[in-house]
Amino acid sequence: MSTETAEKTREFQTIDAGVRIGHVHLKVADLDRALAFYCGVLGFEVTTTRPGAAFISAGGYHHHIGLNTWESRGGHPPAPGTTGLYHTAILYPTRRLLADALKRLVIAKIPLEGASDHGVSEALYLRDPDDNGVELYWDRPKDKWPQKPDGSLQMFTHPLDLHDLLAELDKA
To answer: Looking at residue 41, what is its pLDDT?
Structure first.
């Protein structure tokens, strides 16, 4: 960031802590294939459709993910080295539900690109059928987040023990 840009951004107040990212809308090549992944494997539900589009959610929300072929039917993923969405992050409320997501991926034979313990969260990384990055994760309770000696946040990236995560499903 240039010095001029940094100085200009200091003029603005920080965004309100109540702001949330509400949904993501993805361009896909094949709507049925995308729905098979997001609904069939991950378990989202279709809330509504339009020609060339479907809107899906968890728990009856209007939509968490929009999928459309309006500009991309039969298209190809962006070439490596181009800009675009790095990944969509899907937050699970508990570790047990993240373990269930991992089990679904194993059964569907969907490979992981990575699995990490970040201290504040545990995450699974994969690609959807259109080569969009997907992160499935859960956040540890804030009082369990690791801290540096000065009290600031200490995030890291360590390998996630997938067997330990799946063992979560065997707990009562």
So the answer is: 98
Residue 8 pLDDT: 65
Same-domain status, 165 and 125: yes
Q: Is residue 10 part of a domain?
A: no
Residue 62 corresponds to which tokens in the numbers above?
């209007």
49, pLDDT greater than 70: yes
Average pLDDT estimate for 96-123: 98
Q: How far is Cα 145 from Cα 128, in angstroms, rounded to an integer?
A: 29
Three-state SS letters, the chain: CCHHHHHHHCCCCCCCCCCCCCCEEEECCCHHHHHHHHHHHCCCEEEEEECCEEEEECCCCCCCEEEECCCCCCCCCCCCCCCCCCCEEEEECCHHHHHHHHHHHHHCCCCCCEEEECCCEEEEEEECCCCCEEEEEEECCHHHCCECCCCCECCCCEECCHHHHHHHHHCC
Structural domain that includes position 122: 86-172
Q: Look up the pTM and report it.
A: 0.89
